[in-house]
Amino acid sequence: MIRVPDEVLAAMFAFCFTGWCVAWRVAKRGNATPSAFSVATMASQLTGVIFLTVLIVASVNNYHQNRADQFIAYIPAKSNSSETIRPYHPPAPICPDYFRWIHEDLWPWKNIGITEDMIEKGKNRANFRLVVLNGTAYVESYRKSFQTRDKFTIWGILQLLQKFPDRIPDLDLIFYCHDFPQIKVIDYVSRNLSNLSSWIPPPIFGYNSDEDSLDIVFPDWSFWGWAEINIKPWNILLNELVQGNKKTSWYKREPYAYWKGNTRMSPVRSYLMKCNPAADGSADWNVRVFDQDWIREIEKDFPQSNLADQCNYRYKIYVEGVSWSVSKKYILACDSSALLIHSKYHDFFSRGLIPMQHYYPVKEDFTCDSINSTVSFGNSHQQEAREIGREGSSFVEKELNIDRVYDYMFHLLNEYSKLLRFKPKVPEKAVEISSDSMANNETGLVKKFMMDSKLLANQLEPLTEQQFLGICNRQQSSQQAEDAL
Description:
Blueprint: H1 6-28, H2 34-73, H3 101-106, H4 116-122, E1 128-133, E2 136-141, H5 149-163, E3 171-175, E4 204-206, E5 216-217, H6 234-245, E6 254-261, H7 267-272, E7 287-291, H8 294-299, E8 313-318, H9 328-332, E9 337-341, E10 360-362, H10 368-380, H11 382-399, H12 402-417, E11 431-433, H13 435-440, H14 444-452, H15 465-471, H16 475-484
Parallel strand pairs: 3-4, 4-5, 6-7, 6-8, 8-9, 9-10
Antiparallel strand pairs: 1-2, 1-3, 2-11
């Protein structure tokens, strides 16, 4: 499109202005004939029309030129070099896409609110109750959780209070620290949908949920460390994974799909073992699966369980255990192309993952041959497979770093507090708890991981309310791309 130079526009304006002056002078002359006045008037009108037309055409040209520039931005630049050209990706939004699910998880109480009676009725399913009053935490324990899940979950919330002092509102919540979601939709929906009297589900926080449940999904304990199996806090481990990825490029890694874990946790994991190469060499499905013997690892001080050393394969498999697995973030962070076997359960961030962008989807009723087909396709389309691995690790590094985890917690708890229809108070059997009081009572790896993940006040500000509400939503980038087309 041709842009109209500023000099031309100035000349047109001057010409038009001159025509208007002539018409005015003619009109002022007392002896002007009607024909002379008409000619002058028509001349001024004509120049005015010409001037307006030029302005309109210039504006349209500029508009289309801008749209063309936007479109060109989405096209990789041509290059004569042999270097692989990466497709253009719009800048990542400040606000991770999965934050939108906060409202989805809280929708059952959006109109009816949360009463103290609802929380009391949910205590029999929870491991602990946590109350925050004026920035101070109080915990009432109901039953011991598996290993130290409850301790590190409470520790994470205490770090949030430390990170954003005077920013966390008064709260009263109950938390379930085991694997399966507790609040089933069918238990709280009346068969007669016109009668909503039974629609009073207790608001229980947990680590995962599914389409049939109403549990409020919260970051799991392993973000602050899993002492029993020597998995470090996320703020340390993510950095080690990122640095480890630089040691071996994707193209130089073993061209197989890798998985290592406890195969006794689910039938799907047990079946996955069958995809290893046949002992007699008669079959090879490009899969390398290893059973993790945690008892032996613990006895020998974890010689084979350093996650940062397990990124030596082009492809890594995610498969659920008893329910969901905390391993998804570690697998995605490896810079390998992730193969995610269909999951029934979701954690707080996985709803922001996009198939064929962040991972290769694998059906739940997969066969060894179907995994082999995905790996073979990736090995024959290495640039595409490499890009999926890069996108997955970029998602984890930018949108799931520990600061974003705290942001998610911050906004989830703030939105939850808005639903409370009562003023929280300290439960009768609750005890005041702080970072110092918790850490001082611990030893070994538990204390070490707490110290390694301990935060100082005001390290970073949380995302603003506007960012959280979706101004920075990922869909903006997608919409811009569609508009440009």
